[in-house]
Amino acid sequence: MTTRDAVRARGRRPGGEDTRSAIIDAARKSFAAKGYDKTSLRGIAREAGVDPALVHHYFDGKAALFAETLDVPVNPAELIERITTGDVDRLGWRIVETFLGVWEPAERRDALVALVRSSMTSEEAARMLREFLGREVFGRIAASTGAPDPQLRGALAASQMIGLVVARYVIKVPALAEATREQLVERIGPVLQHHLVDRSPGPE
Amino acid sequence: MTTRDAVRARGRRPGGEDTRSAIIDAARKSFAAKGYDKTSLRGIAREAGVDPALVHHYFDGKAALFAETLDVPVNPAELIERITTGDVDRLGWRIVETFLGVWEPAERRDALVALVRSSMTSEEAARMLREFLGREVFGRIAASTGAPDPQLRGALAASQMIGLVVARYVIKVPALAEATREQLVERIGPVLQHHLVDRSPGPE
């Protein structure tokens, strides 16, 4: 029985928390079935049996709704705004700092690990993650700098962050699992800076 | 029926290809059950029912045997030797070049992807990969430079390479899946150089 069915079975009109849950439920199905890019808020409203205006009432856009389907109560658009506002010379460090700030609490980390893990074995999950990261996260960050090759740069930055998640939380390489947040910001900040901003391909 | 059983069932003495297969079979089981570090060549010989000298006859050490269990006919010790010999100022680039040279052929790439994928869902596979990378690959490379914090440096370098494999071959982020080898060497070489060798934590 889905949340929506449950709402109906109890004979209540969708409203408040029930409507919210029905929308998240419909969104989760749609992202999994169609991927991130092809999912629309209108389609989610239809699937949830609610007015599209209600979706906009409860959620600040598609990225925020996507985060809700992962049980992560953050608004990606706000985080990206925070990351891309400020000195571009510190962009790489801000990304690592923001990322770890959001994801280190255990309950969010579990959601992140579950997402990365399922993207390794399910083409649907891989597509969701790939499209979401490209469209809402690293695509936006890379585009904000004006550096050439934003797509390749964004993808390279994503590769370092995905590798950090896998090595620290999943494979649990000891030195990385034990590293402090400050150490990671200090060591990985310059890597994201290099991938996203530096004009020359390397230090030589 | 295992390879060893097959050898016996056919009434032949272990020898040549049969012995070789029996050893690989026993090694695969032992690495999965005990992890990389606690597996010994002596224990593998016992499990395979052959003289330990035969294991040394067929395989150039534990790392080479581990590679065989992954169906990857490379000798890690030789690759590491090749990587760590030469100008330390080019170490990062040599790693990416060597890594891609070995792993890009489709049949080896499949073995690599299978290993990374299984390490995401199986603690046994994660432990094998973690111990192998730490002991035989990034541990040795990091130790070769004389830079401080070799364990953290090796783990950070591993995180970038794991992220590259996941983003390019598994999640298939378009810009990375389509990048040429030369582009990857140019962009990721300096990152490994930074993680492994650079004294200052960043460009500032």
UniProtKB/TrEMBL annotation, chains A, B:
Indicate yes or no for the key word DNA-binding: yes
Query: Keyword DNA-binding: yes or no?
Result: yes
What is the protein name given in its UniProt record? TetR family transcriptional regulator
Keywords on this record?
DNA-binding
DNA-binding region ranges: 40-59
Could you name the domain of life of the organism this protein comes from?
Bacteria
Q: Where is the HTH tetR-type domain?
A: 17-77
UniProt-listed InterPro entries = Homeodomain-like_sf, HTH-type_TetR-like_transc_reg, HTH_TetR, Tet_transcr_reg_TetR-rel_C_sf, TetR_C_16
Organism, scientific name = Terrabacter terrigena
